[in-house]
Each structure stands twice: as C-alpha cells, then as structure tokens.
Records
---
Amino acid sequence: MSSAFRCLQCKELFEVIYPSWGLDGNGDSSQRPNPAGLRALWAERKLSTAMLDQSGVWRFRELLPFLDEPKHAVTLREGNTPLYEMPQCARQVGLEQLYAKHQGMNPTGSFKDTGMTAALSVAREKKFPWVACASTGNTSAAMAAYAARAGMRALVLIPEGKVAWGKLAQSVDYGALTCQLKTDFDGCVRVLAEIVEREPVYLLNSVNPYRLEGQKTPALEIAEQMEWQIPDHIIVPGGNLANGAALGKGFREMHALGLTNRLPRISVIQAQGANPLYTSMSRFNGERIEPVVADTRASAIRIGNPASWRKTVQMLQQTNGFCEQVSEQEIAIAKAEIGAEGIGCEPASAVTFAGLKKLRVQGKILPHESVVLILTGNTLKDAEYTIDFHRGTLLKEEELAQLSATERDAIRNLAKPPVLLESTSDAVLRQMETTVRG
Ligand code: F0G
C-alpha cells in the first residue's frame, strides 16, 4: 500500500510505503499488527508523558511509517480532540445519536494541525530551507506555527481581504512571511506552483501526501472514542477536497487491519457559492469538474478549483457518501445552532450541520443512524462573522427576503446580540427579567 507525490521542485517522488502487512492480498500477512495489541498500545500511550505519545497523531505511529526517526516529529501535541454529544441539534433533526468531532480544539484551532505535524516533520527531515502554502487561512496558521517550532522559514500566500482576521493574526504572530496577494485562493495556488518550480521550497498544501497521512488520524480517534463501533455516517465540509479523502483512508486502513468491521458513509457538504464538487457529482457523476469563481462568507472553503477532487469522488464512491450544497442563510443558522450547544465552530464547519438537515429531509439519513459531524475550525477563528450574525448585520436584505418563516423564527430565537446598558444593577436586573420573559 502506498501513495506517491512528486515534488514539483526537485522532481523527487515521495512515497508513503507501508510495511508489508498483506492489506492488499499481497505481502506477508503474518507481519500484520494484531488489532487487539494495537488498540491496547494506542490506549496505553495516552497515559505516557513522552512527547510523541502525547500527540494524538504520533500516538498512532504504526500507521505513519514515513519518518526516518519518529523522534524527528515536530509536534504541538495535536489531535486527541473531543467527540461531543449534540443533544439539541440531534433533537432538532430527529436523530438518536449525533456527535461532533471538534477538530477546532487542536493547538492552532483547526484540523490542519494533524496533517501539518506529519508533513512539516518530513520537510525538516529532508532539510528544506523553506516551507510554503497557499491558504484560505487555516493551513497557513498551522504551517506558520509548526515551522516556528521547527526553526524553519515559512512562506504564506493568502488572498487579500478574504481571510478571517483570527487566522491572519496567527500567521504573523508565528513569524511567517505572510503575503496577501491580489487574487483569490485559486490564484494563490497558481503563484505557489511557479515558486516551488523555481526554488527549493517544500509545498505544504493538501496535495502533499503526508498531510493526508496526518489527517487520517481523526478517523482512528473517532473509532477509539466510540469503542471501535464505527458510526453510520460522517459529514465533512468540502473546500480543496482533501480532508474527506484523508478520513476515508483512515477508515479503510482500520478496516483492512481488522480494527473495525465496516466503513462509515462519508458525505461532503459545500457552500452553494463554492460548489464545484456538488455540480460535478450531480451533473457529471464525478467524472469531471468545472471550476467556478467561488464566493461564500465561509471563507475557509471559498475555493473554485479544488486540487483533490478526484480523491474525494473516489472516497464518495467507496463509502456511498452523498454530496450536498447549502446556502449562506443555512450556514449562518446552523453555525448559531452549533454555538447554542456550547460548542461553536467557524462558518465552514457549520455546513456539516446545515447539510445534515437537508439529508434528513431527503430521507437519506434515518433516525436510528449515528452521525458524526467533523467540526474543522474553532469559533474564535472568525469572531467577526459571529458578531455580525448576532447583531443582525450578516445577511443582506435580499438574503433575508429569501428566508422561510421557520428560518426567520430560528434567527430571531438564536440571535443574542450584546446589549449596551447604564452601569447600574437596576438596569442589568431589568435586562435579565426581560430575557426571562422572552
Ligand atoms: N473547514 C475549514 C475550517 C478549512 O479551513 C478547510 C480548508 C476546510 C474545511 C476544507 O477542507 O480543503 O480538505 O476540503 N482550508 C484550507 C486552508 C483550504 O487553506 O486553510 P478541504
């Protein structure tokens, strides 16, 4: 079993080669790790104080066999994120079991850390002077942090004015060379492709196969957190379309190793304004993709020409997953509903719950099925979006006019704008009474 990636700059073929575990029918199956032994080993490492064991990625290092020396790993103790129950949201959509795997609880606040620890460790082992990425904000935040830890130079290309402040702040805080280009994300990818052709710069976008190796580990954590009972359905947001494929890989490998007895269905949800995969699946059966000029307030997934679409189409076909799209209004409401559970997430992550609602209405998910939403980013990443929603300034007149009566009621009940009061206890107590009366 292997996955290959050719470096655009040095033309070297990087390959992730697995020990011959006989997973594909070839190889020596007597070498295959014993599932019960692996489970026990991974659980035991949680009690260890060793750096590698404390990482929720490197804890699973038997499935990450690509560093010359595991101790070369650059880690911020990523992973080990919570799997939360979502009782209010479950009730709302008529599901018995709904969970959120909160990847926003990673060290830099997004799921990118799990892939970054893996790929940046490879870059350091290979002694690249620079690492670089084009990003909608989270990859760059993660790369900047891990590069700083590794003592490497980091080049960030981001679309000017299209990246949430929290993410831009992280990139500069961690000391990356942060270039805001007068283009969109897809334009940044084009510029970076030229740079890595010209200079020895290690590309850390999600086409890098080691990113996906790290990003498959939340699948292992989900299985572990659910006592090795695989949920019926996993739902992920879709942008550059690597993450769903990475999770699919994790679930496939666990199944092949006999750690689990089936695969979950994995569905991908896109924002309507950045929906090339949705269009590809619904119009061309996933055989080709037509790039779009992307536009959505969920800036993390504002991507019109996704690099890893083929891998995601394959994953959807292997797991019988669905692809849906959701509107700006649906994203805004779903995000506030996830917030009201005391959990919160950034807008791109909220497409998962908005998509779940649609799949339930379409009868594609049944009440007894267990569902895990992958919340990819922390609510603090894009505080401006949240404040605008609660103040009622997020959606434009024409968007408000399209709302159904139910959606209008939902927004009215969810919006909790900050109130400005005189500095007296009377004023505050009056406000509390008003809130209780509703
Ligand atoms: N959710 C968040 C919060 C993201 O930042 C991204 C991607 C996605 C979902 C989509 O994941 O690209 O694997 O389909 N962000 C990238 C970045 C593009 O540059 O931070 P995907």
---
Amino acid sequence: MKTQVCIIGGGPSGLLLSQLLHLRGIDTVLLEKHSREYVLGRIRAGVLEHGFAELMREAQCGARMDAEGEIHDAFEVSDNGVIKRVDLKKYSGGSSVVVYGQTEVTRDLYDARDKLGGTVIHNVEDVALHDLNAPVPPHVTYRDGDEIIRIDCDFVVGADGFHGPSRKAIPKDVLREYEKVYPFGWLGILSRTRPVHPELIYARHERGFALCSMRSQVLSRYYLQVPLTDTVADWSDAAFWDELRKRLPAGIAAKLETGPSIEKSIAPLRSFVAEPMRWGNLFLAGDAAHIVPPTGARGLNTAASDIYYLYHGMVDHYLSGDDTGLEHYSEKALARVWKTQRFSWQLTSILHTFPDASPYDQKLQSADLEYLLGSDAGLTTVAENYVGLPF
Ligand code: FAS
Ligand code: PHB
C-alpha cells in the first residue's frame, strides 16, 4: 500500500487531520488499534475552543456541532461556597466556547471520513514505524491476522495518544520528556439528568475540587477530585452525589438533580510534554506529544493547534513545494503547547486541595484565585486562555 501521509491513531487528532488533508487532495491512510465502537465508547473532553470549532467547520464536520452544541459565553468558579462568574465574551474580546462532547466530535469525524471514502483501518495490530529519519522514505507496518501489511509513505503522523508507539520511535538521545504528576485524580460521572446550572461550575472547596459540566440539557457530566488510592468501586452513585453537594454552594446543591450513572471512571492527572514534535519524517500531534490535567479544558483543544500547523504545513509542501511550515512545526506547536500547559497547571494548582499544602500554601491559593477573578487583568488572562490562544 502507498500513500502520501500515514496517520497512526483514529482519535480526534488523526481523524481531523486526515479529513482536512483529503479535502485538499492529499492522500492519507489512517490506522486505528481499536474498533470504531470502542473508540466511540470513550467519554472525554466536553468543551471546544473557538479555534477547534472553526477547524471542524473547515473540515465540513461542523453541522451537528453547530446544531446540537451549546455556545457558552461564561463559566462559574465557586470558592468554598462563594460563586463568581467568569464572563468569557467580555474578557476575551468577544469569543466563547462550544460545549459538545469529544465522543460526538469523533463520531462526526468518522462519518465525514466515510462520506469522503477516506481510508480508515481499524483493529490494526503491532504497528511499527520504519526509516523515519533515513535517506529513503519512511514506511509503516502492521499485522492483520497472520499477514504483515506495509504502507509506504512520504510522512508519518503519530496521533496515537499517550500510549501509542510513535513517540517511542524517537531515539532516547533525541527525545526530551517533561512531566508533572499530581497527587489526585478526577472521578467522573455521566448521568441522564438536567445539568444543575446552565453554565459550567469549577468548585474549589476544602474537601476537594468539583466540576459541574454537561453534554446537553438532558445529559450531565460531573467530576470530583479524589485521592489516587480511590477506585470506582469505592464510590456508589449515592456517595458521589452526597460529596458533590458538599462541595457546591448551598443554593446550587439544593437544585442538583441526581440519577443513576451511565458512566463512572477515575482519571489520574498529569502534565506531560515530549520534545521535539518532529523527528525526520515523523510528526507527533495531540496526546502523543502532550497531556494536560483537564482543569482548563485544554486537552483536546491543544491537539487542534497541532493539527492546524500540520495541515497548513503539508498543504504548502504538496501544493506549493514550500517546506517552511513543516520545518518550523515542532517549535511553533510547542510554543502554544507550553502556554496551554501553563494555564492548565495554574488552574489545577489554584482549584485543588493538595495533601501536603501548608496553611500558608492554602492562603496563597485563596489570594491567587481572588486576584485572578477580582481584577480585569486576571479575568482577561483566564478568559483568553480558556477560549483558546490564537493559533
Ligand atoms: P487519543 O488518545 O484520543 O487518540 C489516539 C488514538 O490512537 C486512540 O484511538 C488509540 O486507540 C489509537 N492508538 C493508540 N495506540 C495505537 C497503535 N499502536 N496503533 C494504532 N492506533 C493506536 N480533555 C479535555 O479537554 N477535557 C476532558 O475532560 C478530558 N478528559 C479526559 C479523560 C480521559 C480518561 C483521558 C484519557 C483524556 C481526557 N482528555 C480531556 C484529553 C483528551 O480529550 C485528549 O486530549 C484527546 O483524546 C486527544 O486526542 P488524540 O490526540 O486524538 O488522542
Ligand atoms: C467535561 O465536560 O468533560 C469537562 C469540561 C471542562 C473541563 C474538563 C472536563 O475543564
């Protein structure tokens, strides 16, 4: 098999790039380890930055997002029961975000690939990357049953998430990894209930952080900060709802509609960046190169700028013979990646309780939050990061 760009990973990063390139006449083959049902069974991000939404529309995948997604001009932050609204539109110069689940984004992208006749191969095994930085073009192999399939290509894009093989294909003496692990995780629940509030609520509380989010007006998404030692089995639905009420302002807690969980999971929180994001003819994108704690809703949205830079770099390469974009991809993508790392770390550090925090640390957290939300300068920095820094 031969193609121009071989993309490893059928999550939003790989799918969005393959769709954008296809629309510009650039041939791709996308390899996905799991079945489509498995990929679509994941519950992940819920908030799309302005830039991500624009890319979905450019990829001709924005119709359902625009019809069913909700535009949010603000969110709330509560600090031990006192609530403050962060007016995104006012403090970001007019931008907002779209609340639309990553599961739906991924479904729309798969449907669009089918509609265009894109090559998406599921259930591939033993994907291996070859000749990434050699005088000959790269190729990728994978196992299909007893058969080894070879794909010759010009470029390989590693959009295979944190646990995929692409980042590991970069030699250890080239790859630099930066990581910060947080001493807690997020226990997330999905329930067919009316959201407790029309906008998201990020709740700081001495008992721990909580987040009230949603997927629609009939599907709510809630999170509780929990110790890393907790398991889902430790948390009945009733225990979850009781604890959530304790961490929310009384007026909000009183309105909480509870119901059975249709999904419940715990995700550890980490910050991670791999550099460089290019090695020879391999380009890393999305979670393959960086991970953020979900506090700032930056995970999926940071992948968007990787895809934007790669898309334009490859179009310039194939349509104009101009390699400037590809040559500067890693430094350009990382410049924005580190800014989203900073914002995610900042919100995580201010809104969560840390087991080893001294009373002084806790006072500093309160002062930090009070300054951020109590000044135009602070609100502007929160808003412009949350709606998405420019690509
Ligand atoms: P993905 O991990 O989504 O996709 C990579 C794909 O590569 C997967 O489908 C995988 O099966 C495939 N793959 C892996 N190895 C392979 C191989 N060897 N061969 C072929 N394919 C292979 N972000 C937010 O903004 N808000 C959130 O609330 C949020 N919650 C999250 C909760 C969890 C549990 C996780 C893990 C992440 C969460 N994120 C959240 C971040 C998440 O949204 C990612 O940023 C997003 O999935 C990134 O998309 P991709 O880069 O496509 O990576
Ligand atoms: C979600 O709805 O899953 C969500 C929203 C905002 C975040 C994190 C997760 O910051």
---
Amino acid sequence: MDIRKMGPHEAPPMELLLLADPSVPVIEGYIERGECYIALIEREIVGVSVLLPTRPGTAELINIAVVEHLHGQGIGKRLVQHAIATAKSQGYKTLEIGTGNSSLHQLSLYQKCGFRIIGVDRDYFIRHYPEAIFENGLQCIDMIRLAQDLIADSVCLPQIKMNQE
Ligand code: COA
C-alpha cells in the first residue's frame, strides 16, 4: 500500500471523506486549507486523511477514513502513523484529533497511536448536527479532543491489564 499527497487538480475522494464527516460544505472548506493524503492499493483509493493547520505549531488530523470492506486490516493505523510522521516532518509541535464519545473503535485507534485525551467539547454533536447519532448503543453527544506532542517521544507507561484486548 502507498500513501501519497493528492495533487491540486485531483478530485478528493468525497464518498470516503463523508464516512468521517457528513457535511460536504464543511469537508470542502477544510480540504482547501489542508493537505489531503490518499492510501492506494493497486491504484485503487482505499483510504484518505486530511491534515489541517489550525494554530501556530498545531495541526489537526481533521478527517480519516478507510473503505468499509477493508476496515480492521491496519490501513487506518497506517494513515494515522503517516499523518503523525508528516506533521512532525513539517515542524508541527502538536497534532490534534477529535472524535465522538460513542466512537469507541476510533478512540482505541488514536490512543494506540500515541494520542492522549486533552478535553471534552460537551454537547458538540447536539449543537452541530440536526439529527441524533447513535453508535455502539450510545448517543454521540460530546467531542473527545485528543492530542499528541510531536517533540517529546510519547510516554510508554507500564501496562495494567483491565480487560482482554
Ligand atoms: N472493533 C474495535 N476496535 C477495532 C476494530 C473493531 N472492529 N477494528 C479495528 N479496531 C481498532 C483496534 O484497536 C486496532 O488496533 P490493533 O491493530 O492494535 O488491533 C485499531 O483500531 C486500528 O485498526 P485499523 O484496522 O488500522 O483501522 P481501520 O483501517 O478500520 O480504520 C477508521 C479505522 C476509523 C479510519 C475506519 O474504521 C473508518 O473509516 N471509519 C469510518 C470513518 C470514521 O469514523 N473516521 C474517523 C472519524 S473520528
């Protein structure tokens, strides 16, 4: 699998981007200001990520998605690791990401890739989405904000096993 930056004249894979964000105008807004990367297997686009500069020294991994029939095969993790390496190489100090309180799989993925929870934007999904969203039997209400310090290596704490993985 290859991951490469999209060219300025290539059409972004909107169907894929919509898996992570339901609003076309919102996606178009950040695609223009950010950098879009695509993961390819034999010339087929299988994943996408968007890196957006947000504040001085800080970027956000604002969208990440993998084609549904290839979920759970490590492509998402490769895209997150690629975004971390790219942001680091571009001199960012911090990489941020946000996800819903009900997005348990995504929360697991991001923490496995070194992100730590830094805050909660309470009622974000109530304020921004007209219809209630449910995942994993939970209503998606709050946005969990996570960040990773790109300067210090992330701390690997000794593990206390709470549950079977
Ligand atoms: N249930 C629970 N956790 C799972 C899982 C599942 N079915 N599949 C994967 N994971 C977790 C595991 O912790 C895995 O880590 P491991 O490799 O150590 O086991 C980790 O996620 C990485 O899995 P990976 O296979 O790389 O993820 P993926 O290729 O399926 O991509 C997404 C992950 C989130 C990008 C993908 O599911 C997706 O496109 N979802 C729809 C769009 C979306 O929600 N984007 C994020 C918005 S915040």
---
Amino acid sequence: MSKVLIIEDEKNLASFLQLELMHEGYEVEIQYNGRAGLDAALELSDVDIILLDLMLPELNGLEVARRIRQVKDTPIIMMTARDSVIDRVSGLDHGADDYVVKPFAIEEMLARLRSLLRRSSVKQETIEDSDNRISYRDIFVEKDNHIVRRDDQIIVLTKREYELLLSLIENINVVQGREDLLRKVWGYDSDTETNVVDVYIRYLRNKLDVPGEDSYIQTVRGTGYVMRR
Ligand code: CA
C-alpha cells in the first residue's frame, strides 16, 4: 500500500482528496501548512508520494519542494491554482515532478499519481552505476556532462534531443504520452503542437538507431513512446 502525504491548507480539498485516495486503497496523511508539511515529509520514512499545494501558510509550496529535494527524491505533485507557465516551470525547477492546475478532476490527479509511483518504482530498477551515468542497451548517458555514447563513439545531440532521450531512458518500460513528454522536455503544454514530439523522436532515431536493427524507441500507437527493456 502506497502512502500519500497531502500538504494543503484548504481543509475541504484536503478531506476530499483523502477520502478519494483512501477509497483507492492509499494510506493518507494530511498537513495543513508548509512548515508542518515539510517536517512530515522529512521525518516520515514511509511516504511514497507528496501532493503539495503551491500557496500555503508559513512556507510556500515552492520552498517546501526545494527543501525536500535537498534531502529526498520522494515524487512531488504540485497543486497550483494559478494557470500560468511561469508557476508550472518554477514548480518543476524547484523539484516538483508534475503538477495539476486547480480545479482538477480527481481522475486526472489519480492518473498522475499512478504514473509517478510507477515511474519511481521503475527508476529504482534502472541500471545506474552512479548517480551520473545511466545506460540502455549499448547507449550510455553521462548526466553530469550531457554526453551520450555508444561504446566509445560519442553521439552528438541537441539540448532538446538530449532531454527527450533522458526522459525516455529514465522511465524504462513506462509509456509516455506526447503531452507528458512535451511538458517534461519543453516545459509547457496546451498551445504547442504535440507533433513537435514526433519530430524530435524522428531526429533521435536518426542519430541513435542502427540501420537494419529495431529502433531503440518504440511507438505505442495512439498513446506515445517508450524504451523497453
Ligand atoms: Ca492554498
């Protein structure tokens, strides 16, 4: 059973989330201000995911996320009332893994939650021989200097191609939709055409794939992309 820590000062919303999550079989703990939420996030060792409000008394959500991230990599979903690109991007910059804009449908929150929990359990199984090196088949990514290699051969990628590859390779076996990839790699969604993702996947394949062999990146028709082990 996964445990969810909710940090939210709107008591009605917190209770609603708690009921829905418990109904789905999650264990839930609630804190009503940023300070208490941060303490709980740092002290409790069994929290699997955190739902964090942006506007909180005592310590705002961005600061809470930043301080949690200094110590732990527990997945964080930021809940923001303000639907602006700046808030989303700064939330992600401060260590949140995803965000939902209030008011949100509970189904959307549950889907994001499941996706993040799945991703974080897969991440632990991905081969990382140090924090900075990650590999998939014969592709090696050195994260500290942004170098991608196949054996001794360096594959030169643009910044977006690199981030797209990293996003796929860090989520082995997790199918990611175009919107997910767009949000993670480009940092925004809605107005940008999701087919920019298809274009960059094509660039990546051109650079990575070996003629006559299966592509490193699989297309899941109607859904998105995945690298499978
Ligand atoms: Ca609030």
